[in-house]
Design goal:
CATH architecture of the largest domain: 3-Layer(bba) Sandwich
Shape: globular
Number of domains: 3
Strand content: 15-25%
CATH class of the largest domain: Alpha Beta
CATH superfamily of the largest domain: FAD/NAD(P)-binding domain
Helix content: 25-40%
Number of strands: 22
Structural class: alpha/beta
Distance between the termini: 74 Å
Length: 462
């Protein structure tokens, strides 16, 4: 059925049902707005359905697969076998349970959810298409959270079978024998660790000089050690050129080579979905990279807001969720602005990585006279009880002793991100962190120990 161009009036329109979109809808409904949310796929977006949640679930399974080797020296004899069909059923169960939870929250808040693709045709109107059905909606305010999509490589096109993106790799019922990951950023590193533990022979191809480009060198070296201990091959300064029957053709420092691969996953980054929703027709400015120009309130026009991967900054779900509240508040007449001191970044590799705020090098580049102290996890009681002491926690402070950054690499350090971000956001001092009693034995003690080092009174490290 095709509905004519007579438009239905809606109060608050949210385009996109991912972490930013559904959070926006819930905040706006809480503030008394009548909210209509349009989603072309599944509620929860990329993160919940094919990204963060299934990948971290897979990583947990992969960790269990190698547990027998890890605990053998502890006097525990165990074995592990993998059933890929059962694994996929488990991933679906986790995703579907969380998706049901999101839908329940939206239903309880009175949010109207429409299935379909929305596209702006006027500054205050969208067309929503779902199959043969076309609807026109005139809105009072619109908040757009349509996220991003994977970047594809012309020389190595996706075919959905042998050459896939991260979503295709995560949803496969078969385990590749030879897996090549094109891209050594955090997605490639996470998947590389996981599939190596599941039993694949993994190679990572990265165009930059090291994996995790842009990260602190000490972190990169530690993660590289972890990958190599899992048998992962790493080809840096190398470009994927073509795919042929024998494998992936690459060009590197030593010339061309063919990497054996029964599956290739292209994970080289993402591009904003601004072009898919026609934001220019709404009067928004979009830069050459597809990012929507917004003010601190996330306002792209007087009545249209953009959040999440559509806007500058790291493409992270928790950034989108934080921006959601700002956009909803401002659209509802409340003062707010997106101005975080830090946005925590976590890599669920083995070992894990946490980066919060500035490194010492970042501070130096910004003209800040910073100091730092690094506490080795080899001296952490909790790390040793977990069976690993590889890694460290670094605390960075400015000249006044204010904590401006935390970096950590090691087993389970992802759980330190909350305290680290709170310290940076609230301008906690080195003395605040060092003087706070941390429970023993926990990894959190490493933060206090690093702060003690900065305060000139190290305890468990020389």
């Amino acid at each position: 059925m095709v509905v004519g161009e007579v438009a239905e009036a809606v109060d608050m329109l949210v385009v996109g049902g991912g972490p930013g979109g559904y959070a926006t809808a819930l905040h706006a409904a809480r503030l008394g707005r009548r909210v209509t949310l349009v989603e072309r796929g599944e509620l929860g977006g990329t993160c919940l359905n094919v990204g963060c949640i299934p990948s971290k679930t897979l990583i947990e399974v992969a960790d269990t697969m190698v547990a027998p080797d890890r605990v053998a020296a502890w006097g525990v004899a165990a074995t592990a076998d993998l059933d890929m069909s059962a694994l996929q059923a488990h991933l679906r169960d986790v995703v579907e349970g969380l998706t049901r939870g999101v839908r329940h929250l939206l239903d309880r808040a009175g949010v109207v959810v429409l299935a379909g693709e929305a596209r702006f045709v006027k500054p205050n109107r969208v067309v929503v298409e779902h199959g043969a059905t076309v609807e026109h909606l005139d809105f009072r305010h619109a908040i757009v959270a349509t996220g991003s999509r994977p970047i594809e490589l012309a020389g190595v096109p996706l075919d959905g079978t042998r050459v896939v993106g991260s979503a295709g790799l995560l949803s496969s019922d078969t385990l590749p024998e030879e897996l090549v990951l094109v891209g050594g950023g955090y997605v490639g590193v996470e998947l590389g660790c996981a599939f190596a533990k599941l039993g694949s022979r993994v190679t990572i191809v990265e165009t930059e000089a090291s994996i995790l480009p842009g990260f602190d060198d000490r972190i990169t070296r530690t993660v590289t050690r972890g990958l190599r201990s899992l048998g992962v091959g790493i080809c840096c300064d190398t470009t994927a050129v073509d795919i042929e029957d024998a494998g992936l053709v690459v060009s590197g420092p030593d010339g061309s080579a063919v990497l054996p691969a029964d599956r290739v996953a292209v994970v080289v980054g993402r591009r904003p979905n601004s072009d898919m929703v026609g934001l220019v027709e709404a009067g928004a400015n979009v830069d050459e990279g597809g990012l929507v120009v917004v003010d601190p309130a996330r306002r792209a026009t007087e009545t249209v807001f953009a959040i999440g991967d559509l806007t500058p900054g790291p493409a992270l779900a928790h950034k989108a969720t934080a921006e959601a509240e700002v956009a909803a508040d401002v659209a509802c007449g409340r003062a707010n602005a997106f101005d975080p001191t830090c946005i925590p970044l976590i890599v669920f590799s083995d070992p894990q990585v946490v980066v919060v705020g500035m490194t010492k090098a970042d501070a130096s580049s910004a003209g800040i006279a910073a100091t730092s102290s690094r506490f080795p996890l080899a001296a952490s009681g909790r790390a040793r009880t977990l069976g690993t002491g590889d890694g460290f926690v670094t605390v960075v402070a400015d000249g006044d002793g204010t904590v401006i950054g935390v970096q950590a690499v090691g087993a389970h350090v992802a759980e330190l991100a909350g305290e680290a971000a709170l310290a940076v956001e609230t301008a906690a001092t080195v003395e605040d962190m060092a003087g706070t009693i941390h429970a023993h034995p926990t990894l959190g003690e490493a933060l206090a120990e690093a702060a003690m080092g900065l305060a000139g009174r190290p305890l468990h490290a020389g």
